[in-house]
Amino acid sequence: MAVETVRWGVVGPGRIAGKVVRDFVHLDRAEPVAVASRSAARASAFAAEHGIPRAHGSYRALIEDDEVDVVYIATPHPQHRAVALAAIAAGKAVLVEKAFTVTPAATREIVAAARAAGVFAMEAMWTRFQPAIVRLRDLVADGAIGEVRAVQADLGVRQPVDPADRYYDPVAGGGALFDLTVYPISFAQMVLGNPDSVVARGVVTPTGVDAEEAVLLEFPGGRTASLFATLQCLTPGHARVVGTDGWIDVPPRFHHPDRIVLRRTGHAPEEIVAPATGGGYFHELVEVTTCLLEGRTESRVMPLDDTIAVQDVMGAVAAQLGVAPQEGPAEL
């Protein structure tokens, strides 16, 4: 990309987008220049709060904005598909908030479009870019705990049942799966690769979304991941990677930790402190910006094939629980 500064547009000015935008202050060669909402007033308010020069009252207007190089998509999950496909068709890079979509088919559709167009696309799985998680990957790759045999992880929040709340609204992509379970699934896939089998058991609400699930993944060689996520109770949010020569603990909350603890057999525990910059979103923003400046169309840390693999697991979980995610339209 022959530019000196990567210009970002934000689609979906909600709570997470606000947190992400605040981390731009730590970046060089990147700036948010536009925001879009279906409500012009909401877009204007977000732009004023965060010092963004242009506010658009439709997603299409931002996608047609020639001053935008990359679109950060933070709409409800079922809307990701239409916005991402429109942005890619316009030649703009995309950073799509997790979960990437709500169906494996839609994920494959976006990935195929990006690859065919030679346009950068990445899932905004910030966990993989946290400095502490980078250290964990390095330790595993160096054999610090021997052969990895298992991953354990949990993530839960107490979200009282309210049919009017987006967490329990299937049209808004509600349920634990797309907001919470995606984290332990992606963590396990990062460490162990793609599973051979998926077994899921859980609780489905009267509105038709999942409130809780336990997921067992089996990988080649009999390796396993035991995962749990819930909207019904607050859990520690702890993860552990177990190997033949020890284990690595990721203290709560594991999806954005500031430290890990290496416990090698026969050695004293070693705490490795590696805090994130800003609110923690800085690191994924740097990855996208660097990839664009270097002309790369995929991240090596969060490649699209990993996003597909994670979405396939989520699809299997949904099917086994009897949940039918409602994907949004393919066009804006």
UniProtKB/TrEMBL annotation:
Segments forming domain Gfo/Idh/MocA-like oxidoreductase N-terminal: 6-122
EC number: 1.3.1.20
UniProt entry keywords in alphabetical sequence: Oxidoreductase
Chain ranges of the GFO/IDH/MocA-like oxidoreductase domain: 134-248
Molecular function terms from GO: nucleotide binding; trans-1,2-dihydrobenzene-1,2-diol dehydrogenase activity
Keyword Oxidoreductase: yes
Protein's UniProt keywords contain Oxidoreductase: yes
Family: Belongs to the Gfo/Idh/MocA family.
Protein's name in the database: Trans-1,2-dihydrobenzene-1,2-diol dehydrogenase
Upper taxonomic lineage: Bacteria, Bacillati, Actinomycetota, Actinomycetes, Pseudonocardiales
